[in-house]
Prior knowledge:
Elements: E1 24-26, H1 31-43, E2 48-50, H2 61-70, E3 73-77, H3 80-88, H4 92-98, E4 101-105, E5 111-115, E6 118-122, H5 136-148, H6 154-169, H7 181-192
Parallel strand pairs: 1-2, 2-3, 3-4
Antiparallel strand pairs: 4-5, 5-6
Amino acid sequence: AFHPGAMSSSHQNHVRDVPDVSFGIVAPDGREAMLQHVDEVAARGVPFIFDPGQAMPLFDGAEFRSMIDKSTYVIVNDYESPLLQQRTGWSADEIASRVDAYIVTHGPRGSLIHAGAALHEIPPARERAVVDPTGCGDAYRAGLIFSLMRDMDWPTVGRGASLMGALKVEHPGTQNQHFDYNGFAAAFREQFGYALV
């Protein structure tokens, strides 16, 4: 069983009350909060990622279509992607045409980024050891946000996100990995053969 706990009250937090927001993500949360946060981030004109994740069962097709149309980016995994397409009645290409990018993660097989007319196949970063996969998806999203906020090109955005996920897998717990930018950049060059700018 799952109890939402504080998520049941998360709609009491308003994006409109937070000063200086430059980027956002609306991730799995309480139903009312997700609808509200999409509306409030979009109303401010702030770029954001819509990540329905485990909240997929909470919304109908019309609600998903509305949230996608207000989003800058949409991210799902390979299990959620066909569910989102079924629920919206839109193909992956149709979803991608409504946002700057539609990102589909495939775990250890990498990810796909549908951006404009291009499809970027992102290779997986290789972890040195598999210690704990918990939090890998969140780490991927952190790498995605970091790269997007620095206006990197899509192949680099995807590889940075993939590397963050791999670095997480090497450590126990959900947020116990430690490194600085120089260490991350060195690992990026080692994994992908070019410098992270």
